[in-house]
């Protein structure tokens, strides 16, 4: 049995769930999300909890059990509290600022890079801590946008300059060692 799949998903106050067959629609203070799941799983709402049950013990159904429950949990969390991913900027002269809703990055290129947030995503910049927060309701979308921002100037291994996730360990390399003079 899947330990994750067996746990019920608690529905907090202010969140409404509509289940029609294998389609789940979740509505809350941060917006609305919907997703279709495999029809080989039974999803039901019982006593302010969402329960996911399998219909058979086939390997593919067992594999989907925990994944489906985790995705429903992410939907409930996303519309109630939301998700945040934090990126840090390291490097002399590297900085980020907000221009209205847009994120403007100065990363040592000849030009600033301006990023417009997609629907449902917001940026926040802490200038003193040199941090960028990517916030929204869908953790997959937040992760992809954060990876795209990091990809603009990934951290380099010699000085550690670039954009990295908060708490990410950057593997450092030793620099060149000069030859002894004869």
Task: Considering the chains and any ligands shown, give keywords for the structure.
four-stranded antiparallel β-sheet, Outer Surface Protein A, domain 3, 22% helix, 182 residues, 2 domains
Task: Report the CATH topology name of the largest domain.
Answer: Outer Surface Protein A, domain 3
By DSSP (H or I, 4+ residues per run), the number of helices equals: 3
Q: Taking all residues together, what is the mean pLDDT?
A: 92
Low-confidence spans: none
CATH homologous superfamily placement of the largest domain: Ribosomal protein L6
CATH architecture of the largest domain: Alpha-Beta Complex
The amount of beta strand, in percent, is: 35-45%
Order of strands across the main sheet = 11-12-7-13
Which structural category fits the helices and strands? alpha+beta
Tell me the total number of β-strands: 13
Q: What's the shape?
A: elongated
The span between the termini is 71 Å
Largest sheet: 4 strands, antiparallel
């Amino acid at each position: 049995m899947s330990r994750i799949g067996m746990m019920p998903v608690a529905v907090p106050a202010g969140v409404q769930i509509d289940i029609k067959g294998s389609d789940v629609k979740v509505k809350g203070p941060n917006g609305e999300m919907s997703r279709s799941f495999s029809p080989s799983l039974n999803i039901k709402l019982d006593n302010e909890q969402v329960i996911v049950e399998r219909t058979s013990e086939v390997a593919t159904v067992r594999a989907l059990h925990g994944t489906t429950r985790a995705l429903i949990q992410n939907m409930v969390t996303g519309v109630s509290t939301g998700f945040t991913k934090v990126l840090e900027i390291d490097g002399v002269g590297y900085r980020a600022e907000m221009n209205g809703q847009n994120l403007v990055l100065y990363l040592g290129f000849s030009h600033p890079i301006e990023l417009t947030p997609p629907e449902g995503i917001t940026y926040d910049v802490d200038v003193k801590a040199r941090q960028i927060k990517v916030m929204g309701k869908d953790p997959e979308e937040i992760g992809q946008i954060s990876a795209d921002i990091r990809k603009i100037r990934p951290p380099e291994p010699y000085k550690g300059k670039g954009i990295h996730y908060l708490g990410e360990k950057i593997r450092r390399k030793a620099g060149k060692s000069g030859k002894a003079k004869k």
